[in-house]
Amino acid sequence: MIRSNDNSDGRLAVDEERGLIRAAQLGCKESARRLILSHQDRLSAFIYRMIRDRHDTEEVCQEAFLRAFGALRTFDFQHRFSTWLFTIAYRLCLNAMRKSRDYAGGIDFTSMASTHRHPATEADDDVPDSVANTDEARRLRDVIWNSVEELTPHQRAAVLLFYREQMSCQQIGEVLDMPAATVKSHLHRARLKLRETLAGRMADGWSSVRFDASAG
Amino acid sequence: MFDQKGFAVATTCRDVRHLYDAYLDGELSPSLAAEVQAHLLQCPECQREVEMARACGHLIASDPGAPVLPDDFASRVVAQLDQPQTILPMPPIMTRRQRRRVLLERAAAAFVPAAAAILLLVVLIVPPGSREPESPRVVLGDSSYRPIDALGVREWVGPTFSTLQSTGRMADELQGLYHMTVREAESRIPIRPEPYLTAVPVPTLPDGSAFLTELLNPLIQVLSAPPPPPPDDEIVRF
C-alpha cells in the first residue's frame, strides 16, 4: 500500500483525499479501504470519548463508515472528508447516547481509563518510568479525561474536535450543525469548566509532570 | 492593558483570566500577548492556571486512550459495501424541540383510538343486566330498570354508587347512541336481517354489504340482551 502522502497520524493530503473519494465514488474498493484506514483510528477515538462505551465504539464506527460511503455520491468537495465523516459519527453518537440514556454520565470513567492500556504502550512496560509514565501522570490523565466526560455532549464534541482534529470553529460548526459563534461559546465554556474542575483536583507539583502521546 | 485614554495600566489577574484561551490559541495581538506573558511571569497563580490549561489541551490532543479497532476493520467495512442492504442513509439529527413535536404528534394520533378503545371497554364491561343481582341491591336514581351492585357495604355505597351511576349512564347513552346509529345505517345501507333486528323492516341484502353487521355482531348481541329485572324485595330505593 502506498502511503507516501500520509501524515504521521494517517491524515491524507487534500489532493490525495479528493482523488481517493472520486475513485471510491466509481466503486474502487482499494480507495475506499485507504480512506477508512486513514480515518478509522481518529474516528474511533472520537466516538469512544463521546459515547464512553468500549463495546459500542466499533459498531458506531462501522456504521459511520457505511453511511458515509452509502451517501458518497452526494459528497461536497468543498469540505474535507473528515468533516463529513465526523458529522455522521457525531449524529450516531447522539443517537447512541440517547438510547443508553447516558447524557448525565453514569459510568465511572476513571476506572475504565486507568485499566485500559493502549497496545502501543505495552512494549514500554519494561522501560523505567519516565516522567510521562509515572503514577502521577496516569492519575492526572484520568483526572483530565474524567473532567472531559463531565462536559455536555456539545462541549465535549467541540473540545475533542478542536484539540484532537485541529478543526476550526467553522468546521466544528458544520459537524455540530450550529454557527461558528455558538461553537466558540461552547468551547469557551468547556475550557472554563475544565479549568475550574481541574483546579480542585490537581495536586501540588503537578506541573512538573509531562505527558506524551504514547503513554497509556 | 490600556485604559480608555490609551495609557497603560497595571494588568490584574481578572484582566488576564478571560484571555487565557486566546493566549494559548495564539489569537492575541503581539502587544497583548506580551502583556499577558509579562503578567504570567510575575503571577504564579495565573501561571499555574495557564499551564494547567495547556497541559489539559496537550493531553486531550495526544492521548490515544481509545480502544483499538481490529486489524481487519477496514476490510470488513469494504466487504459490507458490496451488500446493498448495508448502505445506510445519513442519520437524522433532531433538536429537542423537534423531538418534542414528534412526541406530541404521536400522542395526538394515538389519543382518538385510545379513547375509542376505553369507551368500547366501558360498554363491554358494564353492559346493562350483565351482573348477577346480589343483595342488597341498589337502583340508580333515574334508571330504575338497571340494578348495580353496591358491594354490600353501606359505608362504601356513596362513592361506589356515584361511580357506577355515571358509568351506567354512560353505558346507557352509548347503547342508545349505538342503536340509533345502527338504525340510521340500516335505513341507508341494505343489511342482512338478524334475529335481534326482526322488529325492524330490513331491505334485501346485496353481496358485500354485510360487513358492518358482521363486524359489530358480537357487540350487538351483548348490548341487546335485556336486563333481568331484580326482585322487589332485594331492592333498596333511594
- Ranges of chain A where pLDDT stays below 50 over 5 or more residues in a row are 1-7, 102-131
* Helix percent band of chain A: 55-70%
Rg of chain B, Å, rounded: 40 Å
| Helical run tally of chain B | 8
Largest sheet of chain A: none
Task: Summarize the entry for a quick read.
By secondary structure, chain A is mainly α. In chain B, a hairpin with a 7-residue loop joins strand 1 and strand 2. About 5% of the residues of chain B have low confidence.
What does this structure look like?
The complex is a heterodimer of chains A (216) and B (238). Chain A has 216 residues and is mostly helical. Chain A has two domains: 1-104, Orthogonal Bundle (Rna Polymerase Sigma Factor, Chain: A), CATH 1.10.1740; 106-207, Winged helix-like DNA-binding domain superfamily/Winged helix DNA-binding domain (Arc Repressor Mutant, subunit A), CATH 1.10.10.10. In chain A, 63% of the residues lie in helices and 0% in strands. Chain A is built from ten helices and no strands. Chain A has helices spanning 14-25, 29-51, 54-70, 81-100, 109-115, 119-122, 135-149, 153-163, 169-176, 180-199. The longest helix of chain A has 23 residues, at 29-51. Chain A is globular and about 55 Å long. Chain B has 238 residues and is mainly α. Chain B is built from eight helices and three strands. Chain B is elongated. The model of chain B is unreliable at 142-148 and 205-209 (pLDDT under 50). Chains A and B meet through helix 2, helix 3, helix 4, helix 7 and helix 8 of A and helix 4 and helix 5 of B.
